[in-house]
Design a protein that fits this description.
115 residues; alpha+beta; 6-stranded antiparallel barrel; 6 strands
Length: 115
């Protein structure tokens, strides 16, 4: 019984000490952000009106060009535009590693194969 509890404790310790991060589990592609444009619209009326902004990025990676949208500016994402980026494409989203190594999900608006 004592040996079994030692093995269980050892296995639990191994799992707790060495978890793989989500970034390690995904197949990252080296890509490039080629363009960033800002768009917006006014929301509300009178004194309560405000602007809602979003940024459109063009990301080239893995033989495809993705046009993606985010509410975050390049400066908030710590991205150099134009510049290199790590990318994981997923169905209708693209996951980018920002300048601080955090994962940022962006909605894909359009995808095209590279020419």
């Amino acid at each position: 019984m004592r040996a079994r509890s030692s093995v269980v404790a050892l296995l639990l310790g191994f799992v707790i000490v060495s978890p793989a991060s989500a970034a390690d589990k995904q197949n990252w592609l080296d890509g490039r952000i080629a363009l960033a444009e800002v768009s917006g619209q006014r929301v509300g009326h009178g004194d309560h009106a405000r602007s809602r902004l979003w940024w459109t990025y063009s990301v080239d990676a893995g033989g495809h060009t993705y046009v993606v949208v985010s509410r975050r500016s390049p400066s908030r994402l710590r991205l150099a535009v134009p510049g290199p980026v790590r990318v994981v494409p997923a169905r209708d989203r693209v996951v980018l590693l920002d300048g601080e190594g955090r994962e940022q999900q962006m909605q894909v608006v359009r995808e095209a194969a590279a020419r």
